[in-house]
Specification:
single chain; 8 strands; alpha/beta
Length: 305
């Protein structure tokens, strides 16, 4: 299991003092760390890497509005610095929504409603609105990246063989998993489900996580092969990881392509080093109730044994 790393947390704590230039809206107040060097990045150093990247993976904590403000700032900056058509892939939109996306002729303000966002189970569309605004302003193509619910349900019994061929191909790029990676993914699923499920019941959840990684990576690969750079992925930090997430699959599937994997974290809650991203961006934490309370009550408390 990943444990807190005092050195990384210490760096994130003092990053603000190293910044001399004002930062653009959205990035203001965020701390930026080059994880390979373990050193702060200035705003301009970071934005230079953003501008040069063929593919950007913008990992978020889903319910943190600050993370979506950062995503919008990065997205807007990258799209202002290209003369090529851009593609933005969303984890929050299942592939079954692509016909509706392609047929949509409205503006950014009406997009979430047109996609039935309120019934999707994702956090309030209002916190994603800055990302929609940036994408629409640039005329980017929006792409649904995640698997539909019926496909996800089918994975519980049958495993990855039920995936569409183009996604299964990407899934197989990192298969079979090394035992240590499988153990870590199982532990993360155990924590994500608040310890209410025994670890020996989590194999299907690991498969689903990997399938969703593969679906997102396949969508990015298809967009890149169709339209070229830039392609931007909007997804949770679990998917933008470079050790086994979509970030890993993309580097295996698109060797030589400049991919910048970003993980956004909350100060005081980041739990690991070496960080499985190229860049970590730390923001203020978002106030929320304990997400485990409801799950534990519905399952009669901790059943981890």
């Amino acid at each position: 299991m990943i444990r807190p790393a005092a050195a990384l947390i210490g760096i994130l704590f003092v990053l603000g003092a190293a910044r001399a230039e004002p930062v653009p809206a959205g990035l203001a107040g965020a701390d930026i760390l080059d994880t390979q060097r373990g050193t702060p990045l200035t705003e301009e150093e970071f934005l230079e890497r953003v501008r040069s990247a063929d593919i950007l993976l913008l990992g978020e904590v889903h319910d943190n509005p600050g993370h979506h403000a950062v995503q919008a700032a990065i997205l807007r900056h990258r799209l202002e610095n290209t003369d090529r058509p851009a593609s933005v892939v969303f984890e929050m939109l299942p592939r079954s929504k692509q016909p509706a996306i392609d047929a949509y002729s409205g503006d950014a303000d009406g997009f979430a409603d047109a996609m039935g966002w309120d019934d999707s189970g994702w956090p309030d569309a209002a916190i994603y609105q800055p990302v929609f605004d940036a994408a629409f302003e640039a005329g980017a193509r929006l792409i649904a990246g995640d698997l539909p619910r019926d496909t996800l349900k089918s994975l519980y019994g049958a495993g990855p063989e039920n995936l569409p061929p183009e996604i299964l191909k990407v899934y197989r790029l990192f298969d079979p998993l090394p035992e240590a990676v499988r153990d870590e993914m199982t532990e993360l699923q155990f924590d994500a489900h608040c310890g209410v499920f025994p670890r020996d019941r989590l194999a299907a959840m690991v498969t689903i996580q990997r399938a969703r990684d593969a679906a997102l990576a396949a969508a990015v690969i298809a967009a890149f092969e169709q339209s070229g750079r830039p392609v931007i992925l909007i997804a949770g930090t679990g998917h933008t990881r470079t050790d086994y997430g979509a970030g890993k699959l993309l580097r295996l599937g698109l060797p030589g392509v400049d991919i910048l994997a970003i993980g956004m974290v909350e100060r005081g809650k980041w739990a690991g080093a070496p960080a499985p991203y190229d860049v970590v961006i730390a923001t203020d934490p978002h106030s929320r109730p304990d997400p485990c309370d409801k799950l534990r009550k519905s399952h009669g408390g901790d059943q981890s044994g």
